[in-house]
Amino acid sequence: MTAFANSEIKIDNLTLNCELRSVNHRYCDISFKLPESLRYLESDLRSAINSKVKRGKIECAITIKKQTHHESFDIDQQAIKSLLDATGAIEQLMGASKAFSPLDILAFPGIRKETEIDKNTLSENTAHLIKSVLPKLIDAKSREGEKLKELISIRCANIMTLAQEAENRLPLVHTQIREKLLSRIDSLQQEPDTERLEQELLFIAQKMDVAEELDRLQAHVAEVQRLIEQNEAIGRRLDFMMQEMNREANTLASKSQDIKMTQIAIDLKVLIEQMREQIQNIE
Fold first, then answer.
1. Is the confidence at residue 69, as pLDDT, over 80?
2. How much is the pTM?
């Protein structure tokens, strides 16, 4: 389910910011964008996220920013001396000298002393940060889930209406088939075998009977309505229910001998496909 959440925490002169983004995905796929200083925490972060999120493509991005407004510039004098000595040796080999400013030296890697943060402190604060942002992500997913629940409920109601319409039409369809068959027999100007005729009509009625499919379809809809009221991960079970509902709609279409029943089957398949697409967003 699509969602976004972020949070930050301060450690001495550092600010850690965490962003979590979630998009639709059939399984739980978690990726990270971490600074090298936090790369060792990836496994712990993955476990923390996976304990709360069961489905979706999740991107976790953590950045570290230094607060520079009161930051002092500590330099490594030994590193500067080594740099100057090395520069002098290179100039002798080149037979020429090239001037560079103190700012050039300051920009050279290793000249400025970096404030080191205790690894345990960094780990604890990062864990606290991810725990603070996860509820925000889940709240965002829940808000979207409520909207999807409403849409799915509407489509379930529409499916039930169509199923009832098909059920009400079944006696009329059977009557039409009987009349059509009798009309063909009359056109042959032959006396029908009444017993054989009744057997054929019974066979056709059984072959075309979709009452069982309609009963199962309505039962599947009731199960979907029950599932969307659950406060747990239901996405994969809903996936399965969509497969079963589509199976019944396909059977209804294949058995149809009536234009109206065929249209009902098509409308059912459209509604089921719309629900299937929405259910891909549900955890």
1. no
2. 0.63
Query: How many of the other CB atoms lie within 10 Å of CB of 71?
Result: 10
DSSP 187-248: HTT----HHHHHHHHHHHHHHH--HHHHHHHHHHHHHHHHHTT-SS--HHHHHHHHHHHHHH
Tell me the angle at which helices 42-50 and 119-187 cross, rounded to the nearest 10 degrees. 40
DSSP at 182:
H
How many CB atoms lie under 10 A from the CB of residue 209? 14
Question: What's the rounded Cα separation, in Å, for the pair 63 and 85?
Answer: 36
**CA distances to 75, 87, 106 from 111, in Å:** 6, 14, 6
Model confidence pLDDT, tens digit, residues 141-184: 888 888 889 999 999 999 999 999 988 888 887 777 777 766 76
Backbone angles phi, psi at 228, to 5 degrees: -70, -5
Query: What H or E segment, with its residue span, contains residue 93?
Result: helix 77-94
Instruction: Say yes or no to pLDDT of 110 above 90.
Output: no
Residue with tokens 């459209």: 270
Helix (H) or strand (E) holding 249: helix 235-255
Torsion sign, CA atoms 197, 201, 207, 208? positive
Which pLDDT does position 248 carry in this prediction?
92
Q: Inter-axis angle of helices 259-279 and 235-255, to 10 degrees?
A: 170
| pLDDT score, position 31 | 93
> DSSP code of 56?
E
Task: Determine phi and psi for 20, rounding to 5 degrees.
Answer: -120, 125
The structural domains of the chain, ordered by start, are 3-69+119-142 (3.30.230), 77-106 (no CATH), 144-279 (1.20.140)
